[in-house]
Design a protein that fits this description.
homodimer, 152 residues, five-stranded antiparallel sheet, two-stranded antiparallel ribbon
Chain lengths: 152, 152
Amino acid sequence: MPTISNYTYDELSTGQRATFARQVSDRDIEGFAEICGDRNPVHLDDEFAARTAFGGRIAHGMLTGAFISAALAMTLPGPGTVYLSQSLRFRAPVKPGDEITVELEVIEKLDRRRRVTLDCKAYNQARKLVVSGTAEVMAPEEKMMIELPEPD
Amino acid sequence: MPTISNYTYDELSTGQRATFARQVSDRDIEGFAEICGDRNPVHLDDEFAARTAFGGRIAHGMLTGAFISAALAMTLPGPGTVYLSQSLRFRAPVKPGDEITVELEVIEKLDRRRRVTLDCKAYNQARKLVVSGTAEVMAPEEKMMIELPEPD
């Protein structure tokens, strides 16, 4: 079973960075549509989407938001992080097949309640910035080694 | 096939409201974990989650973010909306079985590029505020009647 670790508040320092990559499949877009309830044809219907300004199907913007959330939860600070807030600016469309890389950087630590602010950027495979924003989290107090549940 | 309509920029007015409700199933949480890559056991493993401060499994915060995104895309302004930015403050945990209602309200219109700002609040079935934030969108220029693709 794969295991991951975390960075406690005390182990984090400004300038610390992490990356997290995900490829966007058609199945991801269809699954995301079903889960959140946004079944707009610009995400699901090739013919419809071809006639829009995007020229083809695009992923839901919030799918990249979910990748940023996963990057925080899985890498920096990782397990035990409590998500407090997130800002997201959607800068360019993400298309099926795109390889999205989330880059996180610790930009501020506030001792009160282990508050940490991270800069969040998501790029596609052409290094085009697709989403940017800022996350506020409460960093973990305790070091953890987590056994990840396997997907079904 | 179900159809939905939209509100064009010209049809929107400040104070206009819409709601959008989704129930959070175990399958939604498992699917969201698989799609975004956040397989932390606080979302997936009952035994692990019972020992955390949450006392049981919780949904990914960004799942409620995805509901807010879907509310904008499906109801107000609806199809043809271009998502520009979103802020999210995660205020309380969402648990499997919770019924989440997103409430949107138009708070500002700026003629330049059909920019509309909406207040976004998500409540659980006990009317506890779980997520709040603000969305900026480019509202549709043209009225649309959209046939929704059926889920597979």
